[in-house]
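Morning!

As promised:
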Amino acid sequence: MRMKRQWLLLSLLVPSLAAAHDLECEVSINEQSTFVVREYPATLTFRQVVRNIHPTLPSTLQEATDPLLGPLGWSFTPPPPVTIPVNDSLTYEFSVTVESLEDCARVGQVPPSESVEFTDTLQIGWDQGMATCSARVQCVPADTFVCDDTLYVSSSAGTSTELLTLDPTTLATTPVSSTTEFGYDAMGLSHIDGYLYAISNRNLSGDPLPHVVRVDRVGNIEDLGSLPELAGQEWIVGTIMEDGSYVIGSFLGSHWLHLNPVTLEILGQGTLPTTTPTAWAANPLDNKIYGYQSYLARMSVFDPYTGDFTVFGPVLGNVGIQPCSCAFQQDGTFLLYCYTSDPTVDALFEVDLVNGVATLLGSTPSLAAGDMASCAFPPSQGATPAVRPSGYYMIHEAALERCLASGPVKLGLLPAVVTKEDALRLLWSSPAFTLGGERRSEEQAARHALARQTLTGVCNQRLFGGTPELQRLLLDTATTLGHTRTMSRLEKHLGEANGRGLDVALPYSLRGRATPSHALEQLQPRSSP
Amino acid sequence: MKKTCSRILPLVALLWGVSLCACGDSAPELQRYELRLQGTTSRFSTTYLSATAVQVTLGGAPLRTELLPSSQRMDVANPTHAHLVAHFWLRPEQVREGALEATVVLDDFGAFEGTDGSAGFVDAREAPLRLKLQGDALERNGRAVIHIDLDRSIGPERQGSRPLLPHLRLVY
């Protein structure tokens, strides 16, 4: 077996080495292979580099095509054929301005949507070969945060703050933005307007009063000003309530303040009967603030509308007397992020609010004086719910099991999907062939593709609630008579609906690890869905 | 996956042998050619992709083509195997009669496992592989091998998914 493989490899490689000329290409957009536009207007500079990689001979670029840029009025200058000397390259460049999200769709020649994406592909040819290279542009709405289950953590020292995302599964952090002008804390992410509100206890303006600041997704910080009520305290905890109001708590005096973050109108204030929790966040299920009383190592619940405050549950010995920060997921999961006895390590826990037990999810290198925020309440308008395309279900067996726990998925004329293995066989086989290698007819292919999207759509509904659009399409699918053209049309629409929430983070409880090879091992070629 | 490879390899060798034998035949009959796919990567331990359609045209006119079962769930991160995607047929003297072009449509989603332990799905919905074949090289070798540079072709991760941005070369 080994001999055969080496022989095959060698014989495939030899002809390529014998080529007389050789070119390679590279496309970038603003020097990146995938460029995300978040601010408008934006200039996109497409750079196309064609490099002669023949060690001793010049190579001639015979032809070059780029279907995206042609319609935008661009052409290759100098036009091929162009001879490129040894160790040299040819660079083409084209810049275009994107005025808005809608304009991005025009440039990309794709339909407008909430997240526009398009690919620029360059194809080059020479006498002995061709090469293709591509880069992608994604345009997203300006400024505001997407209201989903993404966890934001801050790391603050003096007048500097870094904002990062924290993946609760891998505990990896990714930088979002940073500032050297505002040392902010007490963060709350508003589902009403998509901005992060915080209190800058220290800033460069020289004003000794803390200020309310508003941070957007790209890191612009608007100083909303100060209030006399903020004076003399260090505000360390903050959260946004269901009505969009902002509740903050101070470290030393145990003061709390309930305010409208936009108008800075005071809605309520007082003093807590014990120390201020070092972590608090509003629960989307009951609109009360749950916190961690670090000195007691117990949980507390606070209603800022009535002033009621209660410490509840057992001592959380595994969390201990440590400063923490916390956030809710939209499904009511409470995540607590704490210092540990090891100053270089922080730990993430999930706390069950019914029986008060904290479960360790993992540890991560310590962040300085971190706070945490998430968009716990459902966004007020125009939000895209989290859904996932079929690719997600191919590699997340736990999600499939959870989906099928509420019953089989009916697929019209095809057998219903009952088990995880049924689902994997459907998802991993393509419309072209059955798992056993039999070619599908055009009609069978359309039926298979529609079945795959139906399973995906039903699981999206069962796991994430789905969308009215998805519900309507699934109803249409259930009643379709099965004409090939109708099935293909429905499949296309369902595919779009299943892919529309890909940018929205999933709730923590549904973020299992992806296991492609394991999923593939579950396929049994004996049956042919 | 090892099992699948060991099942496919003898088949590939056999088919290829048949195709080479046919090359020596000088009768003006339709000659069978191969289209293969092979990846190179240092970042991914596995990358599964399937093809769902293939078209080869000569001067714009479609040639007889056949997508093969070995084009399903190909682990293109395996550098020792050029997966047989399709056969297509034309007469040897036709190769210089017009532009030879091929398009391979991939199934919507594939999957990857990184050498760093990460994993997710590959979004190939916008990425048909478009190729221009060199007639004389094709005639000489009986096949064209699409080399996909996975390190450059598999874009940055976004919520567990990575877009396929094809970076290809053809060798014969």
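The first helix of chain A runs from residue 2 to 17.

Hope this helps with the figure draft.
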